[in-house]
Amino acid sequence: MNKNTAGRGPIIKEMIITPIAIKDPPLLNAAGLHAPYALRTIVELVTEDGIVGISEIPGNDAINSSLAEAAKIIIGRDVYQFGKLQQALNAHFGTDTSKDRGDAPWDQRKLVHVFSALEVACLDIIGKVVNRPIVDLLGGKMRDAVPFAAYLFFKYEGAGGELGFGKAPNASGWDAARQEAAIDPKGIVAQAKAMCKNYGFQSIKLKGGAFEPELEVDAMFALHKEFGEDMPLRFDPNAIWKPETALKYGKKMVPIVEYLEDPVRGQEEMAKLRKLIKTPLATNMCTTSFDEIPSSIRLGAEDIILSDHHFWGGLKASMELAKLCSTFDRKLSMHSNSHLGISLAAMVHLGAALPEVPYALDTHYPWQSEEVILGGSISFENGAVEVPKGPGLGVELDREALKVLHQQYLDCGLSKRDDQIEMRKVQPGWTFQKVRW
User: Fold this and answer.
1) Are the beta carbons of 44 and 16 closer than 8 angstroms?
2) Those residues with Cβ within 8 angstroms of residue 229's Cβ, 6 or more apart along the chain or in another chain
3) Is residue 254 within 8 Å of 217, Cβ to Cβ?
4) Which residues are catalytic?
5) How many angstroms separate the CA atoms of 26 and 20, rounded?
6) Residue 142 and residue 146: Cα distance in Å, rounded?
7) Which residues of the chain fall below pLDDT 50?
8) Pairing of strands 233-236, 145-147
9) Each residue's pLDDT tens digit, 259-274
10) What is the pLDDT of residue 111?
11) Are 302 and 268 in contact (CB under 8 A)?
């Protein structure tokens, strides 16, 4: 072996950043309304010997600009050297802290998104070099398939995309059901039945925070009546409830929910509520970074942390989080946002490597009607996704689809997510409130 190349991994020679837009239905949440398009960014790292690693992250102008800056740092680096890469990125951008997350239900930090994009793409390359799936690079496969939950939303009628609030006339099955309005318990039950029939989900989550608590809790009881005791239910009002509201309805839902996700805002209020109700509390809002772990443990803020490799700093960091959760008697599951198959594949590799998966993971995947990977949409069997068998992520870019979705991004005119602006198109003057009900 040449002494100059011994111990040297593949070297990055090029980074390709492609923003895309995917059709998204008019889904409601505490921050407002989903736009007709959700923004994602596809990252490709190309090595000197032509190996391509891919990743997918939430997209906006700020993140894309940071990725372009990061390209100057990663070019010429060894794909194995994550530690040095992290140090170089921190030196350039500064370290993210929890205060940079923002008030909205989605995470607005930049560096964690950038690093997660680079790490996943590097792991994809390494997997291809050694001919092993990413799950094996994370410690090995603990399960062959990873369970996901049906993720329900209150929503207005419409398919999103160019149809907006209109519907495709020839749609059938779940494709038709996801275009229907769901603004009351009856609509939510119909949505759940259609989604569970199509994907076989064995757990259900309802995103709340859009309507008065009584209506949303009535929807939870309607789901319980329809699906029975054997269907685990969870509810997420995105921290928009006042403490007294959370206590009232949290107690009411004790018999029917497996956990409540972010019923109130902040670790201190979560800790207070946790002492007053029997239901476990989960979060992807009050504890979202490693710097928040000490206060989480001191206060007893939650029982379950919903990780997301896109904003916990990647897949390896998420494995580190799993160890902390085990040490401090927390359960770990997974958060989701509007995404395509590259992100889903990464989530499945992580979910398969975790020591335990006590709760089915979140995914928005059923709400997306487009794909950017070869072979089309990833299939679900009884609500679970089998671990991809190929090397690395086990999925590859569909170049023609990527072109179409990039052009869709250029045409849609969106540069960042803003659910308040979209909501004002329906309710002029509507304003996001951190605590509303």
Assistant:
1) yes
2) none
3) no
4) 207, 335
5) 18
6) 10
7) 1-4
8) unpaired
9) 999 999 999 999 999 9
10) 81
11) no
